[in-house]
């Protein structure tokens, strides 16, 4: 059996934590934390903006590093 080199595909991939324009590598954990914060902010904004929103997630995902009483005070203040 002969292998043809034309059937072999080579792909070059960069890690997810690489920004080519700045030739910069970012720690993946930092990226994930930023994404979690963005999603958390978006969820809270949706919850505050209307009554027809349901958020599903673990307590730590919804509240983040803050205790639930801190977040509930913040949301109730925003509704006033």
Shape: elongated
How many strands? 2
Question: Helix content range of the residues, please?
Answer: 40-55%
Biggest beta-sheet profile: 2 strands, antiparallel
| Mean pLDDT across every amino acid position | 65
- The secondary-structure element order is EEHHH
The computed structural class is mainly alpha
Folded structure, characterized:
The structure is a single chain. It is built from three helices and two strands. The protein has one domain. It has a two-stranded antiparallel sheet. By secondary structure, the chain is mostly helical. The longest helix has 22 residues. Strand 1 and strand 2 form a beta hairpin.
Can you give keywords for this protein?
80 residues; 49% helix; two-stranded antiparallel ribbon; elongated; mainly alpha; single chain; disordered N terminus
In short:
With 80 residues, this protein is mainly alpha-helical. 49% of the residues lie in helices and 5% in strands. It has one domain.
List the helices and strands and how they pair.
Blueprint: E1 18-19, E2 24-25, H1 28-49, H2 59-63, H3 68-79
Antiparallel strand pairs: 1-2
């Amino acid at each position: 059996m002969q292998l043809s080199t034309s059937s072999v595909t080579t792909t070059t991939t960069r890690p997810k934590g690489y920004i080519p324009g700045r030739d910069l590598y970012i720690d993946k954990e930092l990226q994930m934390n930023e994404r979690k914060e963005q999603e958390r902010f978006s969820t809270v904004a949706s919850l505050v903006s209307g009554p027809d929103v349901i958020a599903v997630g673990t307590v730590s995902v919804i509240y983040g590093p803050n205790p639930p009483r801190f977040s509930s005070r913040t949301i109730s203040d925003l509704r006033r």
